Design the sequence.
């Protein structure tokens, strides 16, 4: 089921949570709303769910205007960060809850619950209580409960935020496989860039109540729309400004910021005329790659990521002089408040 958000705004007192947001989610896709705290991603998710009515704009799900439709009539499955399972009910009873209040036939409910226990890989645990499961297992129960009523749309608000790093990584892969099986249109909120890149078909980057960019993970990473997206998605070095331009109407300075990814820093042990000298300050072994902190003569520090093979070939050590060249620098203009006077 497709979702169309048009010119949706939401304000809490003087705080603008959503500022004329437009978004189209294609049927059957898995979309991540990604951004820092306060960017509006959870507010947008709750507006789609009907838990937070917008001040203006419209939300259309599968061709139906649901902007002011009651939550119970939207046929949406919602998964919260902290599971929200009924502690006094067994896993089977938790999954069956939505079906039973809809008065579905007992035989259908039993069959559907067993199908879902198998789908979320919890066969044999149906008679346990939530307190007897791990955090990852409880989150899978929450997903099964949301899917039980066969929703048009599945919404997940930071579903793995309360779990440790290892379990989060396992559940990311599991959620991706699950989506490929059920194909329900899904939107999940996260502030974890790696999570969004690994799981989503499409990423919506939000900041200060607005959408900065929409694209596939590779589009967002390789072709960021602006300085915010470049700096928020993945590790990045910010280089010194190299140019100032002026607008003709008000002479506001446009400061050009230069960005380069750590893996796009070339490091070598000899100069070649286009490199800059630097000193190795620190070497950090990350297992699959090596992170090298480099300091230039002006004391600016940048970070380079090298493969183990590159590092072994260079044989780098703290205090060693090396020569550095950025391979793929991206520049974005940034308006500043500074006004320049003509001399």
Sequence:
């Amino acid at each position: 089921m497709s979702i169309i958000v048009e010119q949706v705004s939401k304000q809490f007192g003087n705080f603008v949570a959503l500022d004329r947001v437009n978004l189209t989610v294609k049927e059957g896709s898995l979309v991540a709303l990604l951004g820092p705290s306060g960017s509006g991603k959870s507010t947008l998710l709750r507006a789609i769910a009907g838990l937070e009515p917008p001040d203006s704009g419209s939300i259309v799900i599968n061709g139906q205007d649901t902007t002011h439709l009651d939550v119970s009539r939207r046929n949406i499955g919602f998964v919260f960060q902290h599971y929200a399972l009924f502690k006094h009910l067994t896993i089977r009873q938790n999954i069956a809850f939505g079906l039973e209040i809809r008065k579905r036939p007992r035989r259908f409910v039993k069959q559907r619950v067993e199908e879902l226990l198998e789908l979320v890989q919890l066969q044999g645990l149906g008679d346990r209580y939530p307190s007897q499961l791990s955090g990852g297992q409880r989150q899978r129960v929450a997903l099964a409960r949301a899917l039980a009523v066969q929703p048009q749309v599945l919404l997940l608000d930071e579903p793995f935020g309360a779990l440790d790093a290892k379990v989060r990584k396992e559940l990311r892969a599991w959620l991706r496989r699950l989506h490929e099986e059920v194909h329900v249109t899904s939107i999940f909120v996260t502030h974890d860039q790696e999570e969004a890149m690994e799981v989503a078909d499409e990423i919506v980057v939000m900041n200060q109540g607005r959408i900065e960019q929409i694209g596939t993970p590779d589009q967002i990473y390789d072709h960021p729309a602006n300085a915010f997206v470049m700096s928020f998605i993945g590790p990045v070095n910010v280089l010194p400004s190299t140019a100032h331009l002026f607008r003709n109407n008000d002479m506001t300075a446009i400061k050009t910021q230069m960005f380069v990814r750590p893996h796009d820093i070339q490091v070598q042990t000899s100069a070649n005329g286009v490199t800059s000298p630097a000193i190795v300050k620190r070497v950090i072994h990350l297992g699959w790659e090596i992170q090298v902190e480099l300091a230039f003569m002006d004391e600016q520090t940048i970070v380079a990521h090298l493969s183990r093979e590159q590092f072994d070939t260079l044989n780098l050590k703290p205090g060693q002089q090396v020569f550095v060249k950025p391979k793929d620098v991206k520049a974005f203009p940034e308006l500043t408040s500074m006004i320049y006077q003509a001399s």
User: Anything to note?
Assistant: Confidence is low (pLDDT under 50) at residues 242-251, 335-343. The first strand starts at residue 3 and ends at 12.
